Amino acid sequence: MESAVADVIVETQPDGALLVRWAIEGEPVAVDVATGPTPDHVDHRHQTTLVAGQQSVRIGPLGTGRHFVSVAPHGHGPAVVAADRRVPFEGITNFRDLGGYATVDGGRTRWGLVFRADALHGLSPEDVRLYEHLRLRTVFDLRSDLERKERPNPFPSRALTVIGRPGGTEGSTTAMPTESWKTATDGERVLHELYVGLIEHAAVQIGELFGVLAGVDGLPAVFHCHAGKDRTGIMAALLLEALGVDRDVILDDYELTARYRLRKHQERTYERMLESGISPEAAAGVLTAPRWAMEHALDELDRRYGGIEPYLTGPAGMQPVDIETLRLRLVSARSDRPGRGRSLTPG
Length: 347
Description:
The chain is α+β, with helices and mostly antiparallel strands. It has two domains: 4-83, Sandwich (Immunoglobulin-like), CATH 2.60.40; 96-332, Protein-Tyrosine Phosphatase, Chain A. It has helices at residues 125-133, 145-150, 184-201, 203-213, 231-243, 247-255, 257-260, 267-275, 280-286, 291-305, 308-313, 320-330; strands at residues 4-12, 18-25, 31-36, 45-50, 56-59, 68-73, 80-83, 96-97, 108-109, 114-117, 138-141, 158-159, 221-224, 331-332. Strands 8-10-13-11-12 form a five-stranded mixed β-sheet, covered by helices on one side. The two termini are 27 Å apart.
């Protein structure tokens, strides 16, 4: 078998340099590493050639903005493109690209087309310039009317409120009484209940969002809530399910919020929960991203509906052709994408 680059991971270092790691499928080979401002590797600028057996390199710093990296076998073979999954905004911390994930049929989700995020009101003037470079056509705001009124988006957005139970509003998205929230485990249980409730009660909104992504003018797009973890997390998980990404990789993506949205970014939310009578331990649990809570919610999706396709064509109201169009738009097939192979950790 001819050697090929199987996967690439890019991580921004504290000084702004990029740490690039890759895996080789087949015998070790020398690789060419190039960079550019878009996922189109044809326009990338060659940075270095590394000897066979080397699987990482540090590049830069390359300056402000977003940087894509392509790695290809030296002199021949397709390139695999990647970027740091987090878009480097200053004022918000959890704006992430859903591109670059391998699918079970050998494809890979396309970079730069769908993003998941926390609330956008904190964007700085420098952030706005980077935001405009993303050329987003659609912004889905999953928050409640009250949240949008208190912290309006700086850009035109499509209001698409999602709730976890009938009649639910921000702060009352689960049926579990707040006085029973005592331990960190209770807080995690609240998240699990919320996720199951969102799958059940926000199906129409989920179908609407996916339908826009499958449309002619919907991309690039971002969907966001307050923290970019729970409502956004369910939307991202179900989208990746629909695109054929492996369940473990979907759960890895969910857990990434814990890396980017730290406790110091959530103090006001924490204080509000304490004011409502929730114990400090339970409030801290609600602010986490417990893998089991999302995993069990997706298991419940399988049990209740028989998987993502019956769910989308059932309560979500989509047509099979729309799901297929969604995949065609957001996944590059093995035959038309650079590179192939397994996924490593999210990056």
